[in-house]
Amino acid sequence: MRLKRVRSRIISTVLVVAMFTLLAAPWTAIKAQPTGDIASKSQQAAQVAQEISALDQELAVATEAYNRVRSQLDEITEKVDTTRQRLNEIKQSLRERRKILNDRAAAMYKNGRTSMLEVLLRTKDFSDFLERADYVSRVAQNDSLLIKRIKSTRDTVADVERQLAEQQRQQSGLVEQAAAKKSQVGLKLSERQNLLNSINQEIQRMLEEERKRSSAESADLERQAEQQLVTKPESGLAKTAMKYLGVPYHWAGEGPGRCPTGEHRICFDCSGLTMYVYKLFGISLPHNAAMQFNRGVKVPLSQAKPGDLVFFGSPAHHVGMYLGNDMFIHAPHTGDVVKVSKLSARSDVSGLCRYSKGK
Fold first, then answer.
1. Considering 37, 273, 300, 335, which has the largest number of Cβ atoms within 10 A of its Cβ?
2. Local structure of 285: helix, strand or coil
3. 207, 195 in Cβ contact below 8 A?
4. When comparing pLDDT for 20 and 358, which is higher?
């Protein structure tokens, strides 16, 4: 009897300690703990999946913000390169004009400057005088004009140099912004990985089962998309995009050899995929979903064709390519691959756009 009372006290003490431990430990939806109850674990798994989805969306916004800044940086870099080329051409022209003037001045010094009196004394008659006088006058005018051009060119060089300095200053600012955005993306990736690492094994198993179910559904959609595109000869863009099914998502990824970290031989983010495919068809798009949306001709879903781009969020932070029959292909988020999804499964469609060469 005494042994039973001692055992009962030990069990009570353990339960009290366990309760205090649970109360003291941080409890959030991100750090889901096993409860032993299937319904509760399913609820926890759903909460974790929701947390991951929200974080993926936040990461997509940060990635597209980084892409926008980097796209602007590329534009200013191109302007700087063009300005440098123009500056070199102007400097070369200035050197040539100065040489012409120096050669002419040297010739005048060597031969002696011709005055109107000398012209008059050397002429045979008045007609000859007028002809010689006109020639001397035109030489003087040309020299004066050349001097003015040299001065004008010199001033132009100074203006271009100031423009170049300003563009370089802007470029430096954009580089700093791009680096900051890149750091934000890196932090979001770390946060997402920490979230996944914090999930207990049972919930991980549930999430893995959901992932497999989603993969099977996507594979079925891929077969449907391929079958229907066979009958549409005008859908070259969509057919080309389908060649990249299974390519891993990576922030700022732009295709073969353009993985920012070198982690993959080929990778895409959402706007990187659409930009790359359209470039293969001679259509230049910026590497940013919102910028792509602003450049496109808006079309209603009822008139959408395979190859049109479909955008999500406001402002747009995600983009995919419409395939027809309620399907689109896209690079979804970190940890996923290029795949086909149902358009009706999204509630955040912001519009569809069409593009053509020169637009």
1. 273
2. coil
3. no
4. 358
